[in-house]
Amino acid sequence: MEYDIRAQKADGHLVSFCDQALGSLKFINESLKNESWFPSNLRSLVSALSVLPAQDKGYYTFLELESIVNQTRNTLVKKFLKLKDLGFVVYNDFDKSNSQAGLKSKFIKLVNTSDCVSVIEKQRKSNPETKKVGSLRKVHAALGNSDLHKSARVSVKDVQIAIFPKYLSFIETVLVSKGVRKKTNVASVRVGNETKVIEARSSDYVMAVEDIQILCACITLTINQWSNMADVLYAKKELPPNQLYAEVFQILKLTGSSTNDSSYERVRGSMKRILLTSFMSVQGGSIFGDDLVDLVNFSFFKNTKIYTREKDVRLSEDEIHYKAQAYLLEWEQSFYERFLTDEFFFSIPIPMLSAKPYIFIFYLHLRKCFSKDPSLQLFMDIEEIYNALCIGRGTDVPTIRSFKSTFTKNLKRHIDTSPCVDDDCFEDLDPERCKVNYDIEGFKLTAILYKGNIETVVCTVDQHKMLKSAGVKSDLNGRVETEGGGVSRYAAPQVVNPLNQYNWIIKKLSNLGEYLPKKLSLRMVRREVSFKSKRSGPFFVVNHPVNKRKELVFTAYSDESYMANVSAMFSEKALFQSTIFDQIKSSVSLLPKLKIGQESGQVLEKPVFDEIVERLFLDSSIIVEQVELYQVLQANHSLLSNVLAYWAMDVHRERIVFAIAGLLNVTSKQLTLDVSQS
User: Fold this and answer.
1) Rounded CA gap, 501 and 227, in Å?
2) Spatial distance between the Cα atoms of 604 and 641, rounded to a whole number of angstroms
3) Long-range Cβ pairs for the range 28-35 (8 Å, 24+)
4) Long-range pairs for 30-35 at CB < 8 Å and ≥24 separation?
5) Which residues form the Replication initiator protein RctB central region domain (predicted)?
6) Nearest Cα residue to 92 out of 66, 118, 59
């Protein structure tokens, strides 16, 4: 059919609209009503066009269609290009000699009805739903080759919060800065009450800060997979297998990333660094400061199986990592046991997994800062933020100038239109400075920007919003109900371990005498055993299990026999006694010893302390409690100095013992050495 086309430049593309085109539109509209693969936005456009009358001139211009279907020119261009990709329309050139149409204007024709049938059949064979079924079959096949049940499959859209263990909160300090690639890194970190030097080492590149969000996604998938299997394992009376099946696609969706090639490569790179990085305590001793997790060195995973689309299994290690589509992983045994037995996990809002690495680390830093006092108003300049997020990650850290620019850009997506703090915080700003408000999942920031970069920040927290975003229910004041029926103003953003449903299985297996790892049994018992205790200055105090008015006090010099006797008061079961003993011993090991001076001062060691107790009994017939002797020496600085300086000399010991005896209240401690009573 010939058309007399006299289009103008403003008309845009021309769409054929003869009887044949109208018939094709009606056929597409009727045939694809229930086809889920056909996009709904295209369906609405086809539906609107199918009811239009045919044009005498044989076409509609985009300018006319804009007002008819009430859509913008840009939207129409995108939708017709999509119809072209599917095969329903073709773009043709036309003779512009009799018109003033633009050089890029095309004549769009719909294919005839028979061609529409072929296009629909082709699309049905390769539609996303078919791909999804095929993908699920592959997943179930992969799970069938593992110890995981097919019910372990996690739907990412059902994951409400991310999960991260409390004892791993220090790990971000060990990681190298964003974008840094090196094989080793050494950092000083704070674990509990101790400072430890930890080395990260890898045969490729060690983990960087951008990898912690991928690790968090893996932990979240693990906990959800094991939780999904609870009903199946209930009947079998089995614990979940120590395995994680994670697809790269799942991790991308969980971290809010697009599914393009560069995103796949980024996740594969992160997973490779996580799998190949090992951590070691340079000083020796447990990295975690936990007597039940005595790991001097560890990797997160110990056995790895990588699935690729390649049928040829003779790929090099680098090719396998590069082409990975899914992973079947086995956690380090200690992590497996802790996942099952920890009472609580830190909860992290899902949007934070897609935040820039600096913002994610800054969010964790703010949680620490406000953990003790949510009413705090925190002032920080950019140097303090830089020190908190970058310093301590080894030698390869960004300059403060580079960090300032990057940090400001990363915060842009968190701009908040509502005021965060009182305007009086910043008065008399000069013209080169401006004030911008930000909101990071409940943390309200007001920042002063100088020449486009952050200079100073004031931060407060909306406790209710912060807890709500982390999946914790609270009232509008941020107060959370406690188990005793009260309310807590300083509730932490944490959730109960969903794997607690496996507790009864652990107990059942223990009662049947079946094999369980010793540490897993001990951790389980530790959760069952509780006793009220507190740290009072240099003393560790435990409430007496029988006499509620009495307290049992420990010092850094308490004997293990005394700890064992106290443990026996709480339970007749040996395993329970052992657990209480471990808890007391662990707490006592953190108590300070008597010393002169500061960090490098002389320390009164336990053998000398025990000798003083013994000499008081032998020389002066005095039985002294350790707490009382500790208080006497602590209160008398000169006496403690003499003990440290002269106790090693036998000639001075008698004088020192006599001085200590004179300071003790010996009225109730004097022994009557009667042979008839001995």
Assistant:
1) 8
2) 10
3) 28/88, 28/116, 31/116, 31/120, 32/120, 35/120, 35/124, 35/127
4) 31/116, 31/120, 32/120, 35/120, 35/124, 35/127
5) 167-373
6) 59
- DSSP class of residue 240 equals P
Q: Reduce the DSSP state of residue 52 to 3 states and report it.
A: coil
Residue 364: other Cβ atoms inside 10 A: 18
* Torsion sign across C-alpha atoms 65, 68, 73, 75: negative
Cβ–Cβ < 8 Å for 275, 304:
yes
Q: What residues are paired with 194 via a beta bridge?
A: 191
* Average pLDDT for 143-163: 79
Q: Is 377 left (phi over 0), alpha (psi -120 to 50) or beta?
A: beta
Neighbouring C-beta atoms of residue 10, cutoff 10 Å: 12
Average pLDDT over residues 255-278: 89
442: alpha, beta or left? (left if phi > 0; alpha if psi -120 to 50)? left
Alpha-carbon gap, residue 20 to 465, rounded angstroms:
58
Among 595, 590, 591, 588, smallest CA distance to 633 is for 595
Q: Could you tell me which of 218, 184, 174 has the C-alpha nearest to residue 204?
A: 184
**Does residue 90 sit in helix, strand or coil?**
strand
Amino acid at position 292, single letter: L
Task: Compute the half-sphere exposure of residue 431: CA atoms within 13 Å on the CB side of its CA.
Answer: 0
pLDDT at position 215: 94
CA 576, 227, 158: angle at the middle one, nearest 5? 145
C-alpha 231/C-alpha 501 separation (Å) is: 10
49 burial type by CB count under 10 A (0-12 exposed, 13-18 middle, 19+ buried)? buried
- Residue 72 tokens read as 């913008």
In angstroms, what CA-CA distances link 525 with 82, 306, 333, 522?
A: 61, 36, 18, 5
Residue with tokens 């999509």, as numbered in its chain: 82
128-137, 236-245, 344-353: range with lowest mean pLDDT: 128-137
Of 74 and 528, the one with more pLDDT: 74
Quick one: which H or E segment has residue 114? helix 113-125
Per-residue pLDDT of 3-39, as tens digits, reads: 556 666 667 788 878 878 888 888 888 888 777 678 7
Q: If you write DSSP's letter for every residue of 557-576 in order, what string do you get?
A: T--HHHHHHHHHHH-SSHHH
Cα–Cα nearest to 3, from 18, 23, 21: 18
CB-side neighbour CA atoms (13 Å) of 397? 21
Mean pLDDT, the chain, integer? 78
Expressed in angstroms, the distance from the first to the final Cα of the chain is 128
Which pLDDT band, with edges at 50, 70 and 90, does 375 fall under?
A: confident
- Residues 32-83 have pLDDT tens digits of 877 767 877 788 888 888 888 877 777 888 888 888 888 888 888 888 888 8
pLDDT at 438 (0 to 100): 92
What's the pLDDT band for 670 if we cut at 50, 70, 90?
very low
Contact (Cβ atoms closer than 8 angstroms) between residue 279 and residue 168? no
